[in-house]
Amino acid sequence: MASSRFSVHPVTSADVPDLVQIFADAFDDDPIVSGIQRDVELGAKIKGDEELFALWIRNAKRDGFRWDKACEGNVSGKAVAFCKWTIPHTLTAQQEEEISAEKISMRAMPTLPGTNLELRHAFLGALSKARDRWIDPAKDYFVHILVVSPHHQRQGLGSLLLEHRLKAVDNENARTYIEASAAGLGLYLKHGWAPVDEIVLDCDALKVKSKDGKYVTGVYRQKMLIRDPKAGSSVM
Description:
Order of helices and strands: EHHHEEHHEHEHEHE
Oligomer: single chain
């Protein structure tokens, strides 16, 4: 469990720069998440990420997003970890049109120089197919992002953010879907998730670059997991 020096609060648009920095720091060593834009100029990358996060937060109510942040102390302040959930929801016809128009607009935007387009298409495409297979948007919860600042890891913040909503999810007798890298898998298994699927990417074919600029060899695996209601003793 996280110590009492941390508390959970709703995210606001003012948190965007902190969230983007936490995300960048936490995934800096990840060959896929960071590898997609490994050769993109840093300032352009940060600007693009901040615009995306701001859009997600702005449209949170429509899109079923719920954002939580962990802060030191008992009042809302600078985030040291955050979690983005998608709760069960059904879009109206007008909302579906709005989202479709936004996607078309985003696809029309110029790609940042240095982006590994083949890797982006392969990774995001595989995630999209897995989500279509396993998530019923009207019934299931989805933990989209769970990130802890590297300076605050191994202090129970991942569990704190998960448990903040899992009890309510269990009360609704709902399932929860999540995607796990090797680093996060143990945490999710502890809280009752079980693997149901996996994506495998060929790093050689996709020309994946590591943090030090060298090409990554072999395969990258990411697991898809489902948590049935009331699974996991830590949140019973």
